[in-house]
Specification:
InterPro entries: DctP_fam, TRAP_DctP_sf. Keywords: Signal. It comes from Sneathiella litorea. Helix content is 52%, strand content 12%. Strand 6, helix 8 and strand 7 form a beta-alpha-beta unit. It has two domains: 207 residues, Bacterial extracellular solute-binding protein, family 7 (D-Maltodextrin-Binding Protein, domain 2), CATH 3.40.190; 99 residues, D-Maltodextrin-Binding Protein, domain 2 (3-Layer(aba) Sandwich), CATH 3.40.190. It is an alpha/beta fold.
Length: 379
């Protein structure tokens, strides 16, 4: 009996160990979705969180992800490296933070003055990345990631304590910009561009490190800027688009089945449109609270509007030259022309359905992402 009892104990112990191992494996299989942005940001609230829920449902629980927002897992500048190294499985990359690694995506960023309908810009950027820019796909592959399209925020405005409606009022102002063309524009009007993360905008503005913040109107609420900046000059200068809000570690992607990859791609199409929607939603929330928060919207003068158009024309050649010399893109102009063409195409497609997110998402998937071979993407 002693031998039998010992054997039973051994078997029981092995069973418990096996169950424990499977439990640990199950826990280990939960993916990590990293966002450097706060939970209040539209790309977290309206994009990452719903994406995770949809994917879990569509995969019958096979694909589950835990969200790490606010930079709790990876910051904005190290998300690309963190995805490459497998620290996170999905992340939100701002390509501006890593220009030498993603030169073709910087080309997209530098064309942020083109287009007026954010959802259409998201669709155009996605088609450009996925179907017309081999250099984009090569950049992603070289850096160990798979990017499922691009997305656009709403137009950037000037938030300050003062009226910035004239060129004279802009001269000498320290303007927080996300770099690139925004910094070049600031310089062109005699202002001083300052590069700081969006998470530090409030403190920088309150301490006088910057006089102006360039961001979508919704940032007044999501970053509490309306506590300090009571004047918004509605300059509509450009919309932020140099990011992959669904950037996937190649290590994670390579472990997925074709069906699982398709689930991610279908839900990415929804999320890319939701990115633009989320920013518009935040803008609308601010508009509804302007009186309560004592915030004034100011129309820029004709000279400011004209200066933006003149800058846009002149900057075309700057983008070409910088693409060739700084980012080593042999012939940027055909790619730039293609981007403009696609923006026009998608603005015409989306104009009749611009209030129907589901219709826009379906069109984006059917006409772009469904044409991408899930098996070969990233290989």
């Amino acid at each position: 009996m002693k031998k039998v009892t010992s054997l039973a104990l051994i078997v029981g112990g092995l069973t418990l160990a096996t169950v424990s191992t499977f439990q640990n494996m199950a826990l280990a299989e939960e993916g990590r979705f990293a966002s450097y942005l706060s939970p209040k940001n539209p790309v977290v609230e309206f994009v990452a969180e719903p994406f995770i829920e949809r994917v879990k449902k569509d995969s019958n629980g096979e694909l589950t992800y835990k969200l790490y927002a606010g930079g709790s897992l990876l910051g904005g500048k190290n998300t690309a490296a963190g995805l490459r190294d497998g620290i996170a499985d999905i992340g939100q990359i701002v390509f501006n933070y890593n220009p030498s690694e993603f030169p073709h995506s910087i080309l997209i960023a530098d064309m942020a003055m083109y287009g007026n309908l954010p959802a259409a810009i998201s669709a155009a950027t996605t088609e450009f990345m996925m179907l017309h820019c081999d250099g984009c796909l090569d950049d992603y592959k070289r850096n160990g990631i798979v990017v499922l399209g691009g997305a656009s925020a709403t137009a950037f405005q000037l938030m300050s304590k003062s009226d910035l409606s004239t060129l004279a009022s802009l001269e000498g102002k320290k303007i927080r910009t996300p770099g690139g063309l925004y910094a070049r524009w600031a310089t062109s009007v005699g202002a001083v561009p300052v590069s700081i993360p969006s998470s530090e905008m409030y403190e920088a503005l309150s301490r006088g490190q910057v006089d102006v913040v360039v961001n979508p109107l919704g940032a007044m609420k999501s970053h509490s800027l309306w506590d300090i900046a009571k004047k918004v000059t509605m300059i509509d200068i450009a919309s932020f688009r140099p990011w992959g809000v669904f950037s996937i570690s190649a290590k994670h992607w390579n472990g997925l089945t074709d069906d699982q990859r398709t689930i991610l791609m279908k839900n990415a199409a929804i999320g890319l449109i939701d990115t633009s929607y989320g920013y518009q939603k935040k803008d609308d929330e601010v508009l509804a609270m302007l009186e309560e928060k004592e915030v004034e919207l100011i129309e820029p003068s004709a000279e400011v509007k004209n200066s933006i158009e003149e800058f846009k024309k002149a900057d075309w050649d700057v983008i070409i030259e910088q693409g060739k010399t700084k980012y080593k893109i042999e012939d940027p102009e055909p790619l730039m022309n293609k981007m403009v063409e696609l923006i026009k195409k998608w603005e015409e497609k989306f104009e009749p359905i611009k209030d129907d997110n589901a219709a826009m998402s379906d069109m984006l998937y059917n006409e772009v992402l469904s044409k991408v071979d899930a098996k070969s993407l990233g290989q």
